[in-house]
Amino acid sequence: MALLTAQGVERVFQLQKPEGREHLRRLLNWEEFDEVRDPRRSILLDTLYESIIFAVGKGFPWREVAQVVKFTEELLKETKGCSITEAVTILGNKLRDYQGQFNTTHLLALCDYFHNTFIRHYKLYQYVLGQDRDVNLTVANLEVCTPPQPLPLAEGKDREVWKHEQQLEGLSSRVLPELAFMEAWGMKEGPCLPATFCFLQELEKLINEAIHIQIECLKELLQYEIQITFDILDLKLQKKTLNLNAPIPPLVPIAGQSGQDEALKLSKTNKGKKAKAKK
């Protein structure tokens, strides 16, 4: 506790919680410990860290903040194994002992803080900080194999083509050693001739399969292009039919045409009357 000064607690408050807890551990002169294997010390360190946060939030001066941490640590040690009645008595006595360290407002805030946290959950504090715990921890190293990095899509192949290539590679790996042996000993027509014949049969079979795959692909592509062509022709036919069935707009009379028609009718009527008069 000798290293716990006003500057020290101020630095603890300025850091993020993980770094602040670690800095507080060094100020308390604690040895490093495993947070998982030693949960009691981890919880105790959390309690002291939270007391700093409380004191700063209530406006305690930095010198008094350091005293709050000291007060908290002493209270937890002195109440270990005591009943709750004894713990309340110890808390009251310590508040009287620290009257000279805090003013009245801060002393009352400190009393409320420990009453609402430590005393209210006293049995939980005693169970966690006052009893030894058996830790049964099993650690297993698990190796995780990540999937290989996929190749670019531009280098992808059709599945059937890839299977065909794999078959060719497998066949070559089986037959090429025999062919190399034949080349070395000049036995092209010797005892290894059946193997060569089998190789040719397999090669012919694979070539036929490859041709069949290519034909099927071309067939599907041709059918697709034919269907597209029929669809385009059907659309053009529908458009032509709509143009032929379009309604004919009514004729618009030419200006003056109506007056000429009336004059022509009147002339024909007069000629008829004159012809009747001559008779």
From TrEMBL:
Organism: Capra hircus (Goat)
InterPro entries named in the record: CLAMP
One of the Pfam families matching this protein, by short name: CLAMP
Domain of life (superkingdom): Eukaryota
Designated name of the protein: Chromosome 8 open reading frame 74
PANTHER family in UniProt: COILED-COIL DOMAIN-CONTAINING PROTEIN 189, SIMILAR TO 4930578I06RIK PROTEIN
